[in-house]
Amino acid sequence: MSRPVVVDSVAALRAQVHGWRRDGLRIAMVPTMGALHDGHISLIRIALEKAERCVVSIFVNPTQFAPSEDLDKYPRQLARDLDRLGLARADLAFTPTVGEMYPAGFATKVSVGGPAAGLESDFRPTFFDGVATVVAKLFLQATPDCAVFGEKDYQQLCVVRQLCRDLDLPVEIIGAPTIRDPHGLAMSSRNAYLGEAELNIARQLNAILRKAAAEMAAGADQKDATAEASRALIAAGFTEVDYVEARESLTLAPWRRDREGRLLAATWLGKTRLIDNVEVPSI
Amino acid sequence: MSRPVVVDSVAALRAQVHGWRRDGLRIAMVPTMGALHDGHISLIRIALEKAERCVVSIFVNPTQFAPSEDLDKYPRQLARDLDRLGLARADLAFTPTVGEMYPAGFATKVSVGGPAAGLESDFRPTFFDGVATVVAKLFLQATPDCAVFGEKDYQQLCVVRQLCRDLDLPVEIIGAPTIRDPHGLAMSSRNAYLGEAELNIARQLNAILRKAAAEMAAGADQKDATAEASRALIAAGFTEVDYVEARESLTLAPWRRDREGRLLAATWLGKTRLIDNVEVPSI
């Protein structure tokens, strides 16, 4: 099985990318935290439709985890990831250490407002600062022409778009549809934390959101529909609901019925936090 | 008199820069807020020693002014600035509007810690966020190989270096010596606010700092020497002293006698705030 070129320094990454650029090749990037699943593979497939070369970064970014979160137990499986990248025909894996990304004395933070307000930020207040900072760095290290992010992390996708627009980062951001198992469960590295009984509960998240979105599209009151979805999640066996909330799909401003909407949710199953989102068609 | 090419959109700036880059030319940038004086001209001279083309941005950046500060009365004199740029043989003037730099919905901030802590930040708490954000944008818009900043704004120079290192902005930062009038007064656009009597007071700032630095280098206690310098400033006619403080010259950490130091000061003359700094040799 062929594996991609693997580099762990910014200098080696830049040398490789500059070579491609000299040859006139278009370069796509797929930033990941590893533990690659079919969702990631679909991002690489889209990247290779948009560009001749695909760089995949694998970096479990400590600055986007709060001290209470799952940084230590987040799944790490580099050998398996590199096999999957080989099968997916990714060209380069960038696997920096924490010290390569954040050398001693590192002291800079990129903060995005707008779409970062509320939702995840209400429960993970420093999360998007960590995401925006590491994505800005990755883009400046790899200088891709485009980058592919999954719609599963919908708010993150909007935040990255805002980041690029605001800082004039010349990277085209491509959103990719969420990949789901046959029961509708969104692929996520954190699904690995779930036992069989929990998986069966988790599989109901998407159906509950789709039902609420359909009701809202058909005219149901927004507050009623989201409250009902929260109740249905608890009834299905979820431990706690962080939020179920409709937003405008482009700006993440509060949803108005005449705009394309997105219904977003975060919910807990024991110690595992799951997120998902679905479209709310305008009427 | 020849004038530089003037562009006010990011798209036109990029088109010009990409053309130069295609021709294999090295590009230097000098970010300014206009009201160009001999200090700026010396930065352009250094830029043209380091690169074949020099882009000068002229943008009075509102995000680095606090509401109480002099944004409205900051001197603006574009026609005169363009004449000076022509004489200095700058190739391109980038003169964006506030709307071009911060379009509706703009929501991103770059914050630098480390050398930004204390000194100016104690008195202008949002200043370096504004500087770091606009410099990151200017570098991503113009993609220069190097950029020249004056040592007169010494803490700013250190902050910009930290910004580039931390965000992997591939721009070499060159510090340029402060240009002074024959009496030692550092060139500054804000000197235009001073009347003749105030100018005579302002001209004593550098001598007072040089005296304190020489005493510290000769073994005087750091606290005694800076307190004495503050007293001397008030005795000379300055209205108020924000700080007189010694720092390590590279990191801006607290100064230790065995390291290269920098003595930095900010002081007021009526409504005008002046800054300056001098070297403190290690012993």
TrEMBL record, chains A, B:
Enzyme Commission number: 6.3.2.1
SUPFAM superfamilies linked to this entry: Nucleotidylyl transferase
Active site residues per record: 40 (proton donor)
Encoding gene per record: panC
Binding, ATP: 33-40, 150-153, 179, 187-190
Tagged with keyword Cytoplasm: yes
Subcellular location as annotated: Cytoplasm
Keywords from the named record: ATP-binding, Cytoplasm, Ligase, Nucleotide-binding, Pantothenate biosynthesis
Residues that, per the record, bind beta-alanine: 64
GO molecular function terms listed in the Swiss-Prot or TrEMBL record: ligase activity
Organism of derivation: Mesorhizobium qingshengii
Lineage: superkingdom: Bacteria
Family to which the UniProt record says this protein belongs: Belongs to the pantothenate synthetase family.
Location, primary (coarse class): cytoplasm
Reaction equations catalysed: (R)-pantoate + beta-alanine + ATP = (R)-pantothenate + AMP + diphosphate + H(+)
Pathway as given in its UniProt record: Cofactor biosynthesis; (R)-pantothenate biosynthesis; (R)-pantothenate from (R)-pantoate and beta-alanine: step 1/1
Protein name, per record: Pantothenate synthetase
Oligomeric and partner information: Homodimer.
Residues binding (R)-pantoate, per UniProt: 64, 156
Leftover remarks: The reaction proceeds by a bi uni uni bi ping pong mechanism.
Summary of the function given for this chain in its UniProt record: Catalyzes the condensation of pantoate with beta-alanine in an ATP-dependent reaction via a pantoyl-adenylate intermediate.
